[in-house]
Amino acid sequence: MTSPLRLGIAGLGTVGVGLVRIIQRNADLLTLRTGREIVISAVSAKSRTRNRGVDISAYDWEDDPVALARRDDVDVVIELMGGENGPAKALTEAAIDAGKDIVTANKAMLALHGQELAERAEEMGVALRFEAAVAGGIPVIKALSEGLAGNRITRIKGVMNGTCNYILTRMEDAGLPYETVFDEASQLGYLEADPTLDVGGIDAAHKLTLLSAIAFGVKPDFDAIQTSGIERISIEDIRAAADLGLRIKLLGVARVTGRGLEQSMSPCLVPADSPLGQLKGGMNMIVIEGDAVEQVILRGPGAGEGPTASAVIGDVVDIARGMHLPVFGQPATTLQAAVSAKATAAKPWYLRMSLLDKPGALAKVAEALGNAGVSINRMRQYGHQDTRAPVVIITHKTTRDAIDHASALAVKTGVLVGEPVAMAIEED
Amino acid sequence: MTSPLRLGIAGLGTVGVGLVRIIQRNADLLTLRTGREIVISAVSAKSRTRNRGVDISAYDWEDDPVALARRDDVDVVIELMGGENGPAKALTEAAIDAGKDIVTANKAMLALHGQELAERAEEMGVALRFEAAVAGGIPVIKALSEGLAGNRITRIKGVMNGTCNYILTRMEDAGLPYETVFDEASQLGYLEADPTLDVGGIDAAHKLTLLSAIAFGVKPDFDAIQTSGIERISIEDIRAAADLGLRIKLLGVARVTGRGLEQSMSPCLVPADSPLGQLKGGMNMIVIEGDAVEQVILRGPGAGEGPTASAVIGDVVDIARGMHLPVFGQPATTLQAAVSAKATAAKPWYLRMSLLDKPGALAKVAEALGNAGVSINRMRQYGHQDTRAPVVIITHKTTRDAIDHASALAVKTGVLVGEPVAMAIEED
Asked: What residues does the ACT domain cover (chains A, B) (predicted)?
């Protein structure tokens, strides 16, 4: 049997504790499957004394994660501290420079510094793996970079933030407004310390950045993703969508077009009876389309102790087995700068507006849409609320540009209360 | 750059042609992702002159697949001939003995001879890979043996034969009887040369055999799977299931129990609104449950040129990248003989019987069930057809043994026409 694989774990929050539990509980299995023992040499976290419900007394303690990365008895550094800069990045760089393999769950760090870190890791010949950074327990990085590596990927889409999906499905199921459910999610501990990361779509866009890099061979480029969050989704939108046989999802879409790569993370409507529409609660789902495989869909828990630790240990198992591949599936130096295309694909759009209760208001809005070249497929006006009337319009297929133009013209009519809410309908 | 990886392809049917197409079309991508060229040295098939719509003139031709396996200019042998014995097995053995890596799509061969072949391959230090053998384009072997390798797997279930799923969903959607849809599927070329392999559940049970070996560390043992097919499913069953909010699927289930491994491939009822219930047409779906990851669901096309070839090339990419792991995820010599448990888990069951149109018939059947300890949760009697009355019973949770006993007692009453149709309801 080969020598043990020795881990140094930096960060003992939910995922770190989950990882320790798996290694303690499934030691026999891990040895059987990798041909070697997987052991923990040392750990590092903020508080040494905090009770985490797991026995870490057998592991050496390091106050300084960078010192952990440099220990002679650590082969693989597990970075579970989070944060795009600061200690996590310093630890990762120190580990690379010390020639250690790294496993991380840090989507923000890789979305923003992935290119630089990947080049550095590949130059040093160390592994830098991040299955846990995207879609929790779903082995999507592996599916994309290995199982489907013979495919020219044409599109990826999916729900990549369980908290947003929890909020949206809870709003629908309980008929509660956004603010109430947001507070619930906060009390349940579902939200990041900065909740904008979740509800602003940023966390999910970090994940899409990483998937795009692998799928399309582009440098990870978070800024190339058109990102908007779910903060403006109202219970009226949820109900109107349900009326139309649709559901609202914070949906990431990255697809190849003749003009470049279209990438967005934004609230969209999907058919209620589609796999994405059926996805409830904190689940994640990734849809991958390639020129050979057609379509593969992966679904699983997007977060949580066990699922995320499952992804981390999956990467550790690969390293223990001697598998080694470039960080983003091809050498980082061969990744291309993404050519970002504006979303030119014509889709049906959902528009919700609040009309002032004035004669001719609806006609003015309809005219504004017509002037922008947007034609109406279906329209529903709901009962008046105070002095305003909610109107929902489903357009014929049109572009984002036309919708933006139509929205601007509609605002100019002076018959709207506030701005229109516009969401693309992703039918297929 | 490393030297090219040279393939010898045996079998140029649908999948073989798909593989040639991918290698020709995506050569640049494959090189970028593996760091080497992937080339075809030689091919072998039944007919050299048949027009396959793909140019194979640049590849050497071998009439004898075994000769192909022994060529000095072949590094990896791709076995796409099929058949559990005969040429496919001879080719595989020759390739192992010649020290070549092997990629195969042959579920029957591996389900029946997998242990022997795996031991031989591992002794020779060659790879024997079979992603394409299970669930077409879905990278499920990889997910199970690599991505989820840190988990103690507790259950696998899924739809693994697209043809059966096509037949069952078509019966429901079109309201057609089994025989009519079977003939349709036959004309569409969806059925194996021996259709019993599909509709008898054998092909799907071969696949479950392979998944179980990886998931539970047991020797592949096809005979350990309780297999029954869809031939007795009538349009009445389909309709009764729909009435109850359920759908019938040919479902594979393998789960760990205190007494051993329960493994079955049989028609079951699942909630119509569950992911399995929503699965239509020729799609496959595998649900994997582990102690850390909770539940991951994979869905994709179960067959077809592109998807199956995608799985083959995925294995080739792994070999090109130098990845190497045991055939079933742990050394074949460490696989245990499966301890087969009878299905002891209590589940609700569906029973359909045809009652003679006689006074007291229903009471007699109800009494028979009671005597077997089976209690009735819901019952529906449908309108009389000729002189018989179809009755559908949903039981409270009970065991297969009790259901078998109840069925036998019900038959003994003499009020039934034919045998009862019994199917477990897999609710979760």
From this structure: 350-423
Q: Considering only the top CATH level, what class is B140-301?
A: alpha beta
Residues of chain B with CATH 3.30.70.260: 349-424
Fold that domain B349-424 belongs to in CATH: Alpha-Beta Plaits (3.30.70)
Backbone dihedral region for residue A146 (phi beyond 0: left; psi -120 to 50: alpha; all else: beta) = alpha
Q: Given CATH 3.40.50.720, say whether it is the number of domain A5-133.
A: yes
What pLDDT, in 10s, does the model give residues A326-335? 999 999 999 9
Could you tell me what percentage of chain A is helix, strand and coil, using 3-state DSSP and rounding each to the nearest 5?
40, 25, 35
**Nearest alpha-carbon partner for B374 in B406, B328, B338, B400:** B406
Nearest-CA distance from B303 to chain A in Å? 10
Measured between alpha carbons, how far is A174 from A360 in angstroms, rounded to an integer?
Answer: 36
Strands (E), B258-312: 260-271, 283-290, 294-301
Q: How far apart are CA B428 and CA B420, in angstroms?
A: 25
User: Which residue in B has a C-alpha nearest to residue A216's C-alpha?
Assistant: B29
Q: In the structure encoding, which two tokens stand for residue B337, read together?
A: 């003989």
Q: Who's near A239: CB < 8 A, 6+ residues apart?
A: none
The beta-carbon neighbor of B295 closest among A149, A300, A314 is: A300
Residues of chain A with CATH 3.40.50.720: 5-133
Averaged pLDDT in 10-residue chunks for chain A of 428 residues: 92 97 98 97 94 95 96 98 94 98 98 98 98 97 98 98 96 96 92 91 98 98 95 94 95 92 96 95 97 98 96 98 96 92 83 90 93 93 79 94 94 93 92
Note whether A149 contacts B33, CB cutoff 8 Å: yes
